[in-house]
Amino acid sequence: MLRLSNIHTYYGNIHAVKGVSIHVNPGEIVALIGGNGAGKSTILRTISGILKPASGTIHFGSDDITSLGPESILRTGIGHVPEGRRLFKGLTVRDNLILGAYSRRDRDRIDDDIDAMERLFPILKKRKGQIAGTLSGGEQQMLAMARAMMARPGVLLLDEPSMGLAPIITAQIYAQIKALNLGEGLSMLLVEQNARLALNLAHRGYVVETGRIVMEGTTGELRESNEIQRAYLGKGYREVWE
Ligand SMILES: Nc1ncnc2c1ncn2[C@@H]1O[C@H](COP(=O)(O)OP(=O)(O)OP(=O)(O)O)[C@@H](O)[C@H]1O
Ligand SMILES: [Mg+2]
After folding, report:
1. pTM, full prediction
2. Residue 39 CA, ligand 1 centroid: distance in Å
3. What is the pLDDT of residues 91-104, one digit of tens each?
């Protein structure tokens, strides 16, 4: 459904993504794992059109979206929850949700979708008049995901949803991500530095190192890999999974 073929992306003369080919099938959660500076966020920014690839192609369904701008890409159905959440911090929770739907033409259904998001993330209903910048980290992450969902995407790009959150809040966010996948059959490309979390939730995964995919497989296969255990899962892995 979403397919990148041999994508190269640069920041000036920094070659951040070096020939990446990945795909996400309908209904699938696909994890991109890798350390700091590996190129994970750059891959997501290239898909959502914030950055233009120097070469390679990106297809979404049968459409070639490689040369489209961010707004058109959003309209084709690719939602992006960026690193650091990037809310409209001075606006209320409700206004953030309404702005999430700005690309849509079926404006009469926006209220229904806000209701649906408030059912999935009940805290957003309680906080609807609150200024987004005053929400807790976990609440901000929920709002960022709900705002992206307001565009009714067919695939959601999630960049480190667990960043800076306590384990109990992370578990809650991950349960909600799973519910979105199961409930709406939504496909997701999930970036995480926390490989244990990502490999537990996703169906398949890719490992990114210095701009390249160095390993791929089902998450079961990746969890079994000695290299992954050593490099990304660390000590204690076996106690958690076995
Ligand atoms: N705006 C930018 N200008 C120049 N170089 C950048 C910029 N953003 C990222 N880079 C470089 O591109 C490379 C990939 O960065 P990227 O943010 O994609 O990594 P990442 O895998 O998301 O890392 P992290 O897990 O720390 O978020 C890094 O070497 C980084 O320094
Ligand atoms: Mg990143």
Report:
1. 0.93
2. 6
3. 999 999 999 998 88
